[in-house]
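Issue 218. Parser rejects a valid record. Input:
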Amino acid sequence: MLFQPFPQSTAYAQAAAACGARVFRADLGIGQALVVQRGRMRLISRGPVWEEGSTATARRIALRRFARWPGVTLATPEEGLAGFGLIPLVTPTTHAIWDLAGDPRQRLDRKWRNHLSAVERSGATMLRDQPGALARLVTNGTAQRGQRGYRTLTPGFTLALPQDALRLWEWQTAGKVSAAMCFVRHGTTASYHMAWGNDAARRAQVHTLMLWQAAMALRDEGVRWLDLGSINTEEAPGLARFKLGTGAAVKPLGATLLVLPWAGARGR
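Output the parser choked on:
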């Protein structure tokens, strides 16, 4: 079972294409890449997916050969890559990857487990895949993320994701939705996509139970890894603690690179 980054998945490709991008898969000889092209710019996000055993030098050359076209090529490899012809533009981010194999509850941080147990005892009930859930989450979640200054994909991208890949969870108080989470399944991997919660949800800590129930449901479907998204201990320390409290592993990604075209052994 291989880990698959969301931006290298079919679900991502369908949404990006629906938003007007040209999307195609490229064979780099020693790996495959989902490429999103807009005008004269191509982007490989969290890719390519390399063959096991390929060397860093071979990967660098393969990327630079792919960049031989009359436009700009950017790549953010899942693992760091450097060398001549690869110019770093944006510093690497870090993601929290939750391995759902075995007994995840035993690997929870003690505080996280205690919060989970408390919400379970409260009798809070989570609702799954209710009619209109995605539209509600997009409206509330986009507004909340904007207020907090968080980066987010456009609402159109979220609404264009294939419905059969989405897993939506909600919590209600007094008959009104007060919290929600959305996950995207892609193969044996799933990715946290977006969430929203009001003050009542934060006080009740319902996102702890919501994330736990979603993770266990995904595991029952055959998902091995849950990508909880980026973590930033300086700008959002509370969110980082919440994600890492699950026992998720810290995974540094590669920097965003400007890939210069390969000019052969002499021109490099």
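Fixed in the parser; the record now loads. The longest helix spans residues 133-148.
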